Known about the structure:
Layout: H1 4-19, H2 23-35, H3 37-59, H4 69-92, H5 110-122, H6 125-139, H7 145-170, H8 173-181, H9 183-202
Helix pairs in contact: 1-6, 1-7, 2-3, 2-5, 2-7, 2-9, 3-5, 3-6, 3-7, 4-9
Amino acid sequence: MFDTGLIVKTLIILLLGVISPGPDFFMVLRNSLSFGRKAGLISAAGIATGCFISFTILICGLKFLFTYKFVKLALGLICGTYLIYLGIMSIKSKSHHERISYEVAPSEPLIVYYRNGFFTNLLNPKLYTISGAILAFTEQQHPSVFTNAGIVIGNAIMVFCWFASVALVLSHPKIQTGYFKREQLINRILGFILIVVGTRVLFG
């Protein structure tokens, strides 16, 4: 049985978690402002893929792994270190001194932005904790396989649409013009935020 009502309820609750600023948001923010629309959209695709995999893992019953401290510590170490690295790179990045056009290709291969979004999402232990708590409620309703599949696919689509919208807004020429006037300062602030977020993930 395909429970549309349960899917909608679950996705609405999950959306509240998605739109709250976190590592994924700052990743898209940095890539969209610094490298343009394509970089932001590819990052959003990476995040959506990470969500698809992480939700599949959760719904398949592997949530219990996070009751083991060493698993959570390992993921926290990997994700935290990765975010701190990206933060340092953001602080060290040089100014472009020009607006990035919608059509100009990003300075790095697109796979780099996809990988950034993918691993930032997939290796975020807090995602599993928060999403696991929400899905625990859903699982109490004994959803069918088709309902769970709808939640996984619907969430991935919802996540992509949200972060793609963020990327499109932040890559707008007027916003970019304002950004490039203060590029180095903003990159340092974003880098600092990534380091803070990474440190919080690292130390729980």
